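dude i think i finally got it to work??
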Amino acid sequence: MKAKKAVKGASVEKADSIPPLHPAHVTPTSEATVALAPDFKNIYANFVQAQFSAFDFSLMIGEMMGPGSDGKTMIQQKVRVVMSPMEIKIMLTLLTKGVQQYEKQFGEISVHPGLLMVGV
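look at this
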């Protein structure tokens, strides 16, 4: 393991002089190359559970498969996505706009109240 050398004249920037992570005029993907990871998967999902802590949001995404051998609904969990609060808010905004555009084009999406487990 190589030892780190001290750098003469190095200075630490003050917190208020550090530029924002994403300047207002640049979107995170406007100057990015997007590529699929080697292990990228395309899945179908019709079941989502969400949890959050002070540090992140967790989405458990799966598929309802119908009744199992015990007669109870079988849910196959497929992936867990963990995101920062900022990214989940960006995702919420994207999804809200997408649903609004979808409903404008195809009509209102009706959801049975029992499926909206708000607060659970």
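Residues 1-15 have pLDDT under 50 and may be disordered.
im so relieved honestly
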